[in-house]
Every structure is written in C-alpha cells, then in structure tokens.
Amino acid sequence: MAHLLEERLKVRHISTGDLFRREIHRRSALGRAVQRYVSSGRLVPDDLVVRVMTGQLNTRLLGRGLVLDGFPRTIGQAEGLDRFLNRLRRSLQAAVYLECPQRVLVSRLAGRRVCSRCGANYHIRNIPPRRAGVCDRCGGTLVIRKDDRVQTIRKRLRIDRAEATPLLAHYRKQRKLFRLNGNGSSEQALQRLLGLIRQRRWLGKPDRAVRSAGKGGHRDD
Ligand code: AMP
Question: Do the domain assignments include residue 134?
Fold first, then answer.
C-alpha cells in the first residue's frame, strides 16, 4: 500500500519488510542477522529494528514527509521511534491501521508472488503478471516468499494480532490512531487512504489524485 501511495503522491516510503528482504538478497551482515526471523515469520528483535530504522530516518528524509510501512510493529518499536523523533523535535503525524478480516489477509498473502530479481509484487488473481510466473518489469522469475506459506502466514498474523493491542493503545492515547477499512481491492483501500489524507490535510495542499478520492476513515479515540 505504501508503494502505491508513493507512486500517487510522490511521498517517499520505507518498508521494513522490503528493506530486510533486500538485505537478505544482498547477503549483507544485516541480511544474515534478520534472515532466520523473516523466513520463519517471527518478528526481528526491537533493538535491531529501531537501530536500522532510525539509521534510515535522517532529517533529510523526514523533511518532505515520509510514510513508514510495517513499522513500528510493537510497543517497544513505537517508544524507540518516539524517543528518536523527540530528539529531533519532530513527531509522528498519524498512525493508520488498515483493518481486514483474517480470511481476506490469508488469501491475499497466499496468492502473492514476488519477482526474484527486482522484488516487484504480484497476486495470482488481483494483480496477475502478463505471462504466468514472469515479471512484467524485468522478466525475472516469480516466486512465493518463504513466509507466505499458509502455516507461516497464520503464525505471522497471530503475532501481529498480539502485538497490535498495546501498539494501538499507545497511538490512541496520543490521539494519533486512525482506523481504516482495508477490505476490497488494493485500489479501493488506497482510495480510502487518499480520502483520509485529504480530509486531514496531512500533506498540506490537496493533490489532484487525492481530490478525487473516496470517503476517509475516522480517528479512534
Ligand atoms: P512484511 O513484508 O511487512 O510482512 O515483513 C516481513 C517480515 O519482516 C516479518 O514477518 C518480520 O519477520 C520482518 N519484519 C518486518 N517489519 C518488521 C518490524 N517492524 N519488526 C520486526 N520484524 C519485522
């Protein structure tokens, strides 16, 4: 979802999952450190995630606004991010929680295919490639992510649900939590998110793409 936002609004995003997968692919020291967590669907330890992410979030990046995707995922990470932003006298504008029934999430993840060369994402039904098993962008082979096997998906969702309760309470207390219906196609969910961004004027002047967006979500307080 964050990469779609980046395309439409030209606002940069960082996804912890993409970053870790890239490092695993490059066989870097970080990649080696996170590999066993990512492939088994467990969360990478908070101190490592916070160190990596705050390393990425320098003031230049923060200047124009930034969408964080998949981070923070635990209360420990949220507190680490708050401490880092406080030191820079910055703060998070909002935390958006996309809600979706578990069966929809399982079907989305189980149908996902990724390009083994460039990392582009597809879905066997929702975003099929022009030629089965081949990336439209670079011709690379499409594969199933190790952590997208059904057993691992269920484990990841269980972990995320357990972590979500204190995390959501943290942002609710700060009056920054927005819940949004993430059901339907990614385009439908994107339109709802664009509507929320417009409604709240998070990016200042409404963008053309945003002006045509549907209804936004609501603050959860
Ligand atoms: P994702 O692509 O967001 O589903 O993330 C894939 C995997 O990367 C997760 O199952 C975790 O192993 C790891 N990961 C991504 N983001 C985080 C995070 N914020 N904290 C801990 N582990 C993460």
Answer: no
Is residue 200 in some structural domain? yes
Cβ contact 120:132 at 8 Å: no
Please tell me if the CB atom of residue 37 comes closer than 6 angstroms to any atom of ligand 1.
yes
Please name the residue whose Cα sits nearest to atom 14 of ligand 1. 17
* Domain of 8, in residue numbers: 2-100+163-214
Place of tokens 């990614």: 186
Q: How close is the Cα of 33 to the center of ligand 1, in Å?
A: 13
Query: Residue 95 carries which DSSP code?
Result: E
CA 137 from chain center: how many Å? 22
- How do residues 4-54 score in pLDDT, each as one tens digit? 888 888 888 999 998 998 899 899 999 999 999 998 889 999 999 999 999
Helix (H) or strand (E) holding 180: strand 177-181
CATH number, position 208: 3.40.50.300
Alpha carbons 115 and 83: distance in angstroms, whole number: 36
**Number of structural domains the chain divides into:** 1
Alpha helices of 71-138 — where are they, by DSSP H? 75-87, 102-110
| Model pTM score | 0.85
Taking the centre of ligand 1 as the mean of its atom positions, its distance from the CA of residue 43, in whole angstroms, is 6
Q: Give domain status of residue 52, yes or no.
A: yes
